[in-house]
């Protein structure tokens, strides 16, 4: 099996973008969304747009770049590179007209290949300052989706992003972090522990060459990669002007599904997600809703139950487990959902709890473990 590889022209393009990073920053001012428009330009027009007076000199330098030295720099930092002309470059990323010429990566090359074929790749995003409930929900969503076989994509930022990665890792699942700086350095640095785990157990990618520091524009720019890789983007919690809504908008532009977790009306932290729902986004109450959207109605319940061991359980226990996974929290609710008598439902719940497949709280309400 061939290793990921990048051609000379694409490597030069990647180094050109990195070399223009400060000029792109200065040229954008506060209009961060315009980075996508710049990154869609071919080399000459990009240089002219952000460095008119020096454009020709910059282009000459880029054309003369030593690609052998570039490859050595990539290998020296423990990374690999793949470009749009490489068979393992993610097919979904090619859908974007501003797709990066190169992805620099660290971690599982096998997972890189799977990104093109896996039907359940879910991008999870949200605020960097989530409520405790939203953070727990993102972690649970990442864990339960990963346990059901989905690949979790996010940006490793503080808050919802890192929580979704941590959830996937806790379930021994597959997760991909897209960074706004070079892939060899944790970004933000406060996520060094999560970075190391993803590098060892998952996949880290960036369009920026090693040694490139993140800028303000590189974070919304990396959002387009996150949106393109996922078959569905889920926003867990976001204010009305959140960068997560940019990711959702890009996903919609690419024809991807968008989902949002409902929030309390009047809560500023839920304004963005509620706006998405009002505009027609899928309602996401749990992993079943995501899998139903991606794989077809009813797929979520069956997949989640199977991932919890439902396929090897007695039919009655499997039905009770599926009921809890779809929101039946009390014994009475489970009994009604499964058309069981209360004693039979209670007995099944106790057996499932003893097996570690459900948990109960002090109020006698049941849920799946995170």
Number of strands: 11
Bulk shape: elongated
Any idea of the CATH class of the largest domain?
Alpha Beta
What is the number of helical segments per DSSP (H or I, 4+ residues)? 18
Oligomer class = single chain
Largest β-sheet summary: 9 strands, mixed
- Quote the average pLDDT: 89
How are the strands of the largest sheet arranged? Answer: 1-2-6-5-4-3-7-8-9
Care to give the gist of this entry?
With 370 residues, the chain is an alpha/beta fold. The chain is 48% helix and 11% strand. The chain contains 18 helices and 11 strands.
Task: Write a structural description.
The protein has two domains: 79-293, Rossmann fold, CATH 3.40.50.450; 308-367, Arc Repressor Mutant, subunit A, CATH 1.10.10.10. The chain contains 18 helices and eleven strands. It has helices at residues 8-19, 21-28, 35-39, 43-50, 55-63, 67-76, 109-114, 132-147, 160-170, 192-201, 218-229, 243-253, 271-278, 287-295, 299-307, 315-325, 331-338, 342-354, and strands at 80-83, 102-107, 121-125, 151-154, 174-178, 203-206, 232-235, 257-260, 282-283, 359-360, 366-367. The chain has a nine-stranded mixed beta sheet with strand order 1-2-6-5-4-3-7-8-9, with helices on both faces. Helix 13 links the parallel strand 8 (257-260) and strand 9 (282-283).
């Amino acid at each position: 099996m061939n290793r990921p590889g990048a051609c000379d022209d694409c490597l030069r393009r990647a180094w050109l973008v990195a070399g223009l990073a400060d000029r792109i920053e200065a040229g954008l001012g506060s209009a961060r969304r315009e980075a996508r428009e710049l990154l869609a330009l071919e080399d000459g027009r990009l240089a002219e747009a952000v460095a008119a007076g020096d454009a020709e000199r910059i282009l000459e330098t880029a054309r003369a770049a030593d690609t052998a030295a570039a490859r050595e720099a990539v290998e020296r930092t423990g990374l690999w590179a793949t470009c749009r002309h490489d068979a393992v470059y993610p097919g979904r990323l090619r859908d974007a007209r501003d797709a990066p010429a190169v992805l620099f990566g660290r971690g599982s090359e096998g997972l890189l290949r799977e990104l093109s074929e896996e039907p359940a790749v879910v991008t999870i995003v949200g605020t960097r300052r989530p409520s405790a409930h939203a953070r727990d929900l993102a972690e649970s969503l990442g864990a339960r989706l990963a346990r059901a076989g989905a690949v979790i994509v996010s940006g490793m930022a503080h808050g919802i992003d890192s929580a979704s990665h941590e959830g996937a890792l806790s379930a021994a699942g597959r997760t991909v972090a897209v960074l706004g700086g070079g892939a060899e350095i944790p970004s933000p640095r406060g996520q060094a522990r999560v970075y190391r785990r993803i590098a060892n157990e998952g996949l880290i990618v960036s369009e920026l060459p090693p040694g490139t520091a993140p800028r303000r524009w590189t974070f919304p720019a990396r959002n387009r990669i996150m949106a393109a890789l996922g078959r569905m983007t889920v926003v867990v919690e976001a204010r009305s002007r959140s960068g997560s809504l940019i990711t959702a908008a890009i996903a919609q532009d690419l024809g991807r599904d968008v989902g949002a977790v409902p929030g309390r009306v009047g809560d500023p932290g839920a304004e963005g997600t509620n706006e998405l729902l009002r505009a027609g986004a899928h309602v996401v109450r749990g992993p079943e809703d995501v899998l139903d959207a991606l794989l077809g109605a009813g797929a979520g319940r069956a997949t989640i139950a199977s991932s919890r061991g439902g396929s090897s359980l007695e039919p009655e226990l499997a039905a009770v487990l599926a009921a809890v996974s779809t929101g039946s929290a009390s014994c009475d609710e489970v009994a009604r959902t499964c058309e069981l008598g209360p004693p039979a439902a209670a007995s099944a719940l106790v057996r499932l709890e003893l097996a570690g497949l459900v948990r109960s709280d002090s109020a006698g309400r049941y849920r799946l473990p995170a």
